[in-house]
Amino acid sequence: xxxxxxxxxxxxxxxxxxxxxxxxxxxxxxxxxxxxxxxxxxxxxxxxxxxxxxxxxxxxxxxxxxxxxxxxxxxxxxxxxxxxxxxxxxxxxxxxxxxxxxxxxxxxxxxx
Amino acid sequence: xxxxxxxxxxxxxxxxxxxxxxxxxxxxxxxxxxxxxxxxxxxxxxxxxxxxxxxxxxxxxxxxxxxxxxxxxxxxxxxxxxxxxxxxxxxxxxxxxxxxxxxxxxxxxxxxxx
Lengths: 112, 114
Description:
The complex is a heterodimer of chains A (112) and B (114). By secondary structure, chain A is mainly β. Chain A has strands spanning 4-6, 9-13, 18-23, 30-36, 43-49, 54-56, 60-65, 70-75, 84-92, 99-102, 106-111. Chain B contains no helices and 11 strands. Chain B starts with a strand and ends with a strand. The mean pLDDT of chain B is 94. Chains A and B meet through strand 5, strand 9 and strand 10 of A and strand 4, strand 5 and strand 10 of B.
């Protein structure tokens, strides 16, 4: 039931672009994106909601294809501070339950 | 300052010795949750709580207990820890349901069970 993320890891030069994908075998009602730097707690980036509403970060964009049960995170003109592990996640269950499941993560390294 | 706090931050213990990791939030959040993080597996939910006195199992609840007697606190209890519970643990909270709200994470507790 865990979402699948690709790629597992990516290395970029500063200023380059990256795309991180997240897909699920189950219907997605919303997709959350978090970034975690080594040794730190995950930090919220963005929520994408069914129906197209997006809440989150100014410099990072994302898409959500409900039919394909996929989401993609777009990092443009990457900065050194973008380095870290990116997780997508989604809530599972019915209206009364809020079981939350994260993907395994994508490790992004931005080099000078 | 709005935050989620966890204690202790680091803990080394032995198999079978009961322990509690505390979690507290000062944002009046309804929803709280515990995760464990292991290399290559991402964050996996242990238990979550929609509100006071309401708790439910996540994906990996075996060997753990929780309680939610007050809105601000959500302790994680390991009655008889085993080496496979060695992990990095995060507590998180959210305003209400997760569909439209972000989770705020505590700093993490690194647990080693010998």
